């Protein structure tokens, strides 16, 4: 039953394409009354949240929002959008007692301890070591990473700047392709390359390499061409991108000691489920037996960040 007590909260996930809201029981960490709005249908987060609250007969007065972007002194900046807002602004406009803002990657990392087999798709590795650190990588318009570390009966989340790690070349062809992508996206760090813009740039480079003049403009178009039409340059794009992702993930796991598993989140891993495989990650690990046994999961549950947002105020 929907309640307005202080043990329930409004939770949200705020992204450049979607705005998800729900009511969470912050004791049981369950989610109810979930909606998934298109960000483009609203002029502001405030307008979207007002529309959601208006649809409810009764709602709590506290909220926790996971932001796909950055937070500076309580001001949220949504990735790739000019929209900004503060928790205080939402409190005043919507008559809420408190609004907590946390990073989306923080919320996802927190929630990994709650994920069951129906919330993820396992694609590599062996059994999860429940008491070991977990690595979390979110891929989409930007790359974000974090580590969830156990200790003292609870989990702590450590933010990571892994997106700044240099993505090195394995051979001359790799080097040429990375340079082509760098010219379009402005860098050869993982945070520049392993993004939707990076995949589109890679697709263009592979098409030019094959002598083609056309190119795909979106990740969706590349996936459709590769999976439905088996178009060679699109297939090669996904293979190369998967190899780069596997290489970066392997380095991240080795650097952080994340024996508890690697969790891939965000729009891109979900879309790439059909092309990511055990070989993608085990080939990248080479002789590093430690990282090749680490389980790799793609998070498929839409409410993961919402549950993590609830955990932040539990």
Sum this structure up briefly:
The protein has 12 helices and 14 strands.
Which range does the strand content fall in?
A: 25-35%
Order of secondary-structure elements: EEEHEEEEHEHEEEEHHHHHEHHHEH
At CATH's second level, what is the architecture of the largest domain? Answer: 3-Layer(aba) Sandwich
Number of domains: 2
First and last CA, distance = 19 Å
Number of strands: 14
Which structural class is indicated by helix and strand composition? alpha/beta
Largest sheet report: 6 strands, mixed
CA radius of gyration: 20 Å
**What's the overall geometry?**
globular
Order of strands across the widest beta sheet?
A: 9-14-13-10-11-12
Helix content: 25-40%
Write the CATH fold name of the largest domain: Hexokinase, domain 1
**CATH class bucket of the largest domain:** Alpha Beta
Written overview of the protein:
- The protein is of the alpha/beta class and 314 residues long.
- It has two domains: 8-109 and 304-311, ATPase, nucleotide binding domain (Nucleotidyltransferase, domain 5, 2-Layer Sandwich), CATH 3.30.420.40; 126-294, Hexokinase, domain 1, CATH 3.40.367.
- 37% of the residues lie in helices and 26% in strands.
- It is built from twelve helices and 14 strands.
- It has helices at 45-54, 87-94, 104-111, 172-185, 190-193, 196-209, 219-227, 232-256, 267-271, 278-285, 289-292, 304-311; strands at residues 8-14, 18-25, 30-38, 62-67, 69-72, 75-78, 84-86, 98-103, 120-124, 134-139, 143-151, 154-160, 262-265, 296-299.
- It is globular and about 60 Å long.
């Amino acid at each position: 039953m929907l309640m307005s007590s202080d043990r329930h909260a409004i939770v949200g996930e705020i992204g450049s394409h979607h705005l998800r809201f729900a009511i969470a029981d912050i004791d049981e960490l369950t989610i109810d009354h979930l909606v998934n709005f298109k960000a483009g249908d609203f002029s502001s987060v405030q307008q979207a949240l007002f529309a959601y609250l208006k649809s409810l007969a009764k709602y709590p007065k506290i909220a926790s929002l996971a932001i796909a972007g950055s937070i500076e002194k309580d001001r949220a900046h949504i990735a790739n959008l000019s929209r900004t807002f503060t928790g205080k602004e939402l409190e005043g406009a919507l008559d809420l007692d408190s609004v907590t803002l946390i990073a989306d990657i923080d919320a996802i990392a927190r929630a990994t301890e709650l994920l069951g087999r129906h919330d993820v798709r396992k694609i590599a590795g062996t059994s999860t070591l429940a008491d070991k650190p977990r690595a979390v990588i979110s891929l989409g318009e930007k790359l974000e990473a974090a580590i969830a570390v156990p200790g003292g009966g609870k989990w702590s989340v450590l933010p990571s700047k892994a997106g700044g790690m240099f993505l090195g070349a394995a051979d001359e062809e790799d080097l040429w392709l990375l340079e082509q992508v760098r010219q379009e996206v402005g860098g050869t760090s993982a945070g520049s390359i392993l993004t939707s813009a990076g995949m589109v740039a890679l697709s263009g480079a592979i098409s030019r390499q094959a002598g083609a003049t056309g190119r795909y403009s979106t990740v969706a178009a590349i996936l459709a061409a590769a999976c439905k039409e088996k178009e060679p340059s699109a297939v090669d794009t996904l293979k190369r991108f998967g190899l780069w992702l596997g290489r970066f993930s392997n380095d991240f796991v080795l650097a952080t000691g994340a024996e508890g598993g690697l969790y891939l989140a965000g729009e891109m891993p979900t879309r790439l489920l059909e092309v990511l495989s055990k070989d993608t990650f085990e080939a990248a690990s080479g002789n590093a037996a430690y990282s090749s046994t680490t389980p790799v999961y793609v998070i498929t549950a839409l409410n993961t960040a919402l549950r993590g947002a609830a955990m932040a105020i539990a």
